[in-house]
Specification:
By secondary structure, the chain is an alpha/beta fold. The protein folds into 2 domains: 109 residues, Enolase-like, N-terminal domain (Enolase-like, domain 1); 205 residues, Enolase-like C-terminal domain (TIM Barrel). Helix content is 32%, strand content 21%. Helix 1 crosses helix 4 and helix 6 runs parallel beside helix 7. The longest helix is centred in the N-terminal third of the chain and has 18 residues. The protein starts with 21 loop residues before the first strand and ends in a 9-residue tail after the last strand. 49% of the residues are buried. It comes from Novispirillum itersonii (Aquaspirillum itersonii). Its cofactor is Mg(2+).
């Protein structure tokens, strides 16, 4: 599905050319509270790239998080964005035209969202109104627990439960995932769990764990097998051994990937850094709904500027995982408003 497909949300109202837009790009490092560990490793700061488009009076911003798993780097994303300065200065670009000039990924996300923000401020019309969301509502986001010892993860889960957080995302790897899940569930039995292996399991490991997951509070399993090595999921589906939905993350980037997921996955994780921005995310959401997938809207670890456009995609979906700012030592001001894990739509001073 393309962004102009009739079944996709309308993008009408963007001009064919804005003309004379200038682009500036910068990097920022945002400290993470402690360390964030998944099956591929740990990090202590979120390195983001911010794109600004301006006509000298009105400016729009977008944020992305380059991800090494997809062959991205801060330097590479900066170079991709800087290469777009000429086209922007010459004639302007719409989000639709941008998708023809740049591949889906972090760089296009930053520029796509900056263009949406710029147009909203220029016209005095919120992005939410332009895409037909008249009354966006607060959503409940998952709160992520990185990989640690079972005891530490249990203690964190207990604190989250005491704070009234209903949905936890539990990072696990190949090493003793069951012990960690048992410890978390025992400490927070009232919480629903999203289990995220980040490609860290084998098919045999998944098959062994599947019967146990419902009793541990799991409501979703995210990307258990490596992308490109997930055909074995079809066997579990055929045999009726899927006890909780399996969600594609690394196996999914854009709507073009959906046909290969049918018969394997029951849900998908939409991240703007994968789809190349709000434009691609809206198209992916429309296509996935039409094909019967359940939907999670997720994020990399970044600031509220990166989460703000995703909040619009997150309206009415099954699962939301936009807790990136909650994992940081500090966030932008103004940022998204979080009350526990209930997050409100962005104010115009932030984005859109």
């Amino acid at each position: 599905m393309s962004p102009t497909d009739p079944s996709a949300p309308s993008l009408s109202g963007f001009p064919v050319s804005d003309g004379g837009l200038r682009l500036s790009v910068r990097t920022e490092a945002w400290p993470i509270a402690g360390a964030f560990t998944i099956s591929r490793g740990s990090k202590t700061q979120a390195d983001v790239v911010v794109a600004e488009v301006t006509d000298g009076t009105v400016s729009g911003w977008g944020e992305c998080v380059p991800y090494a798993r997809y062959g991205e780097s801060v330097a590479g994303v900066m170079a991709e964005l800087q290469a777009m300065a000429g086209p922007l200065a010459a004639s302007g670009l719409t989000p639709e035209a941008l998708s023809e000039r740049m591949p889906a990924g972090a760089a296009r996300n930053a520029l796509d969202c900056a263009l949406w923000d710029y147009r909203a401020k220029l016209d005095g019309q919120r992005v939410m109104d332009r895409i037909g969301i008249a009354d966006p509502r607060p959503v409940v986001t998952a709160y992520t627990l990185g990989i640690d010892t079972p005891e530490v993860m249990a203690a964190k889960a207990a604190r989250a439960a005491a704070d009234g957080l209903p949905l936890l995302k539990i990072k696990v790897g190949a090493d003793n995932p069951l012990d960690r899940l048992k410890a978390v569930h025992a400490a927070a039995p009232q919480c629903r769990l999203i289990v995220d292996a980040n490609e860290g399991w084998t098919l045999e490991q998944l098959a062994d764990l599947m019967p146990l997951l419902p009793g541990l509070g799991a409501v979703l399993v995210e990307q258990p097998l490596p992308a490109g090595q997930d055909a074995g999921l079809e066997e579990l589906v055929r045999d009726g051994r899927i006890t909780v939905p399996v969600c594609a993350d690394e196996s999914l980037h854009t709507a073009a990937d959906l046909p290969t997921l049918r018969g394997r996955y029951q849900a998908i994780n939409i991240k703007l850094d994968k789809t190349g921005g709000l434009t691609g995310a809206l198209a992916l959401k429309a296509a996935a709904l039409a094909q019967g997938f359940r939907i999670m809207v997720g994020c990399m670890v970044g600031t509220s500027l990166g989460m703000a456009p995703a909040m619009l995609v997150a309206q009415g979906v099954d699962f939301v995982d936009l807790d990136g700012p909650l994992l940081l030592s500090r966030d932008r001001v103004p940022g998204l408003q979080y009350k526990g894990t209930v997050v409100s739509p962005p104010v115009p001073e932030l984005w859109g």
